[in-house]
Write a structure and sequence with these properties.
This protein is of the alpha/beta class and 208 residues long. Helix content is 25%, strand content 34%. It has a single domain, classed as Class I glutamine amidotransferase (GATase) domain (Rossmann fold). The chain has helices at residues 15-24, 51-60, 64-72, 82-87, 191-206, and strands spanning 5-9, 28-32, 43-46, 77-80, 88-92, 105-110, 120-125, 135-140, 144-148, 153-160, 163-174, 177-180. Bound molecules: glutamine.
């Protein structure tokens, strides 16, 4: 695998944990706070935290437009939890009106889908893309994906802990965009980070 350089949006939330995971994989990973810092990156992770706060800081620091250009320009981007909310084209249950801040991923997210039943929980998810071993996922005030456009591929679903008969999408991919409703950076399992690096490599070799 060629050497890739990844940025982690470091405005708020769990960015340090992502960097620690990437360092374990010997990947060059840097914190991103300025638009100019996007320039020499091969991929970007938007971490979990609080999407409203992250959005407000991004607006204040003039990052919203550069981030939109990044994502809409087809650059590999992975949103975890709040990061997934910011990437969604449509969101319900959010304070900032019906429109997400960055967009680019044609899904509808419910911002606090599990909130009414349980704030945080863990679940073993079947993720065929990652192999046979289930992924132990940590959900914290997690969003869920309630609708996807045709070209968006669901990678995992989760049963709602309040109602086991109901299951919703918890991870998707659409080309260079990956989104997970849970927090792989809070586990010891490096498979999602490896998978994102693989996506970054695919797109790096395409763009020369
Ligand atoms: N539901 C939170 C939000 O709206 C996200 C929670 C998380 O990232 N752990 O931003």
């Amino acid at each position: 695998m060629s050497q890739v350089r990844l940025g982690i949006l470091a405005l708020q939330g769990a960015f340090r944990e992502h960097i620690a995971m990437l360092k374990r994989l010997n990947v060059d990973a840097v914190e991103v706070r300025l638009a100019a810092e996007l320039d020499d990156l091969d991929g970007l992770i938007i971490p979990g935290g609080e999407s409203t706060s992250m959005g407000l800081v991004a607006e204040r620091w003039g990052l919203v437009e550069p981030l939109r250009q990044w994502v809409h320009g087809g650059k590999p981007t992975w949103g975890t939890c709040a990061g997934m909310i910011l990437l969604a084209e449509h969101a319900t249950g959010q304070k900032l009106g019906g429109q997400a801040l960055i967009g680019g991923l044609d899904v509808t997210v419910n911002r606090n889908y599990f909130g009414r039943q349980v704030d945080s929980f863990e679940a073993d998810l079947d993720v065929p893309t990652l192999g046979d071993t289930p992924f132990h996922a940590v959900f914290i005030r997690a969003p869920a994906i309630t609708a996807v456009a045709e070209d968006v591929v669901p990678l995992a679903t989760v049963a709602s802990p309040g109602d086991e008969t109901e299951s919703v999408i918890a991870a998707v991919r659409n080309g260079p965009i990956l989104a997970t409703a849970f927090h792989p950076e809070l586990t010891d399992d490096l498979r999602w980070h490896r998978y994102f690096i693989q996506i970054v490599n695919e797109f790096k070799s395409c763009s020369g």
